[in-house]
Amino acid sequence: MIKKVIMKNLICSNCAGKIEKALAQLPYINSASFNFPNQVMLIDATDEYDDDKAIGEIKEIVDSIEDGVDTYSYDKRHFIETKKRVENYNSFFIGIGLYIIGWLIFKFAPQIEFSTNSDIVGFLLHGNFNQDGVHIHHVIFYYSIPVYWIGYFFIAYKIFRKTLKGIKRGEIFNENLLMFIATFAAMLLGEFFEAILVLIFYTVGEYLQHRAVDKSKKEVSSLIDLKIEYANVKEDGVVVIKDPMSIRKGDILVVKHGEKIPVDGTIITGSTSLNTSALTGEAKLSHVKIGDYILSGNINVGSLIEIEASKEYSESTIAKIIDLIENSTNHKARTENFITKFARYYTPAVTIGALLLFLIPTSYEYFTNAPVVHYEEYMYRAATFLVISCPCALVLSIPLSYFAGIGAAAKNGILFKGSTFLHMITNVDAIGIDKTGTLTHGNFTVSEFTNDEVFKIAASAEVFSNHPIAQSIVKQYEGDLYQYTDIEEIPGLGLVVKTEAGTILVGNKKLLSKHKVRVRDKKNMLGSNVFVSKNGRYLGKVIVSDQIKDSSVNVIQRLSKSHSITMLTGDNNLIAKSVADSLGGIDYRSGLMPEDKVNAFNEIETKNLKMYVGDGINDAPLLRNADIGVAMGNGSEIALDVADVIIMGDDLNLLEKAFTIGHKTKLIVYENIILSLGIKFLFLLLAGFGLSNMLMAIFADVGITLIAVMNSLRLIYSRRKPDERRES
Prior knowledge:
27 helices; Alpha-Beta Plaits; 6 domains; 728 residues; alpha+beta
């Protein structure tokens, strides 16, 4: 079972990874995955999970890894007030003050030059130093160096505390330990200013990183702000404001101008226009009236309407979409998992490398009786090496890039069920695609029929089917209908009607052939053929036509340049060929039953990954079977359940947009990897040869991290092209 625990103010991705790992060690937790936009830890728990006991243990683990995190049960979020996180930098500023005092002492005290470290130690121990035969004793100067050390420990207090926490957890090698060892070594070498500047830049840089990440998470969250805050429920003629969670099926809801539809339902009073952009990403209006079924999350931009709730809030479209986005981090991209493992081994490796950087040359000089053993120089190089090596840039920017990509896609009405699918879409080279409702509008119209009697029989039978073709026949027939009662629908074939006068068949040619009815009509017409027979005698047919979407032609032709595309349809060969030719001559498979589509899709050849694109209603097996299943439509339940990517609308341009966002995210991820590792390895090389100092090292750590984070945010801030901004 899945449990949710809120961890508010946890914005350190590296810390989140450590918490995930620690929680997975608890006996009642199988795995854990943190979701940044909602600050929720998703926990796969066993039946032994007890909320009250678990929350206490989880909070203890969180507090041992990261400070200032509010941890509490997701179910109690409405009853718990949390304070806004305020970083405690008191010790940092006290340390800065002490260091300034130490600097002033040095500024105005007698200038003494120490040639060796032993001179410094002697001065500190005895308070005197003999230079050129002149004895100097200055009490103020005697205490200036200890002031530096006291200031250092105040400034490094948080880093030191996190280091101790890591050691207690058995995590000896982490970025805090690296920073503490490096700066402590610099202090021992007498590089007081450099050590303190490194700590200052590191602390300020860490603060800026947190601010940047926090701002980016809020920005992405605002892109996918779908939450329903309240609902107007009509009770005994009085409108009462309620929490959407309290809505029950059958409740009458009043939706005013500018309000969101709280749950899925049917309009019972009024007519209006709905802004569907929250779900579809398209700024267009949908006109609805009494009897229309509408989805939660859309915004009423017209007159007041009343709807009858068809579902509770937890089962409504908007709640499922929010839950889908919250669970998106359960499926992490291969690159994310690689970076997590890389950081796990990288930090110990560079620590050992720094130790060897000091030991090898100093040991060589010592055993070869070199005249001068450069202990201080090699210790400084090793310390610089440690500062450079912190993996923050990778650990922070890679998850943030995927997170921003998912948010940008959601803003456009494209829902990825995890960063793994955002990454996988870039490796797709073969696409199987449904015809009806995907490439075509799915709005069927009757273009021709054999005679009025055939049309009447077909309409009378199709009343009992929910198929789009059936509904179009019923909608366009305007006369009286026969009152049939004994009807059997055979999926993929049609309807069998039993009457006193005999058996009526209404369906495709396969249905009639199965009952040994010979179709004598040899005239081929473009469209879907609904054949009618009675007592084994063929009567005629109804031709139903569908139109190709305007977007389909351009999108398919562009995607065909880099992908092999195959249309899979149950329509006859004549219709399939016509549609395929209109789309630029793509491959197609026609006359497919639902079970045949899976086999036909499996036969499509590919070198990498295969994608299937369908309407999410009749294509569940294919959506589940494909490497990536993409469902198009307005949030049908089957789409939310089985598809990996959901396009909340019927515009095929969004499929192309999904590919664009996927490739852009991948590019930025690789840019950050190359930038971070390239700069670090360059500076590590320079540090090894003594060609860099600690200030350069802190740029290679904090500076590169900030650059990588800002690069990741391009996915958010450049989500629209300049011409699109002008149009809006």
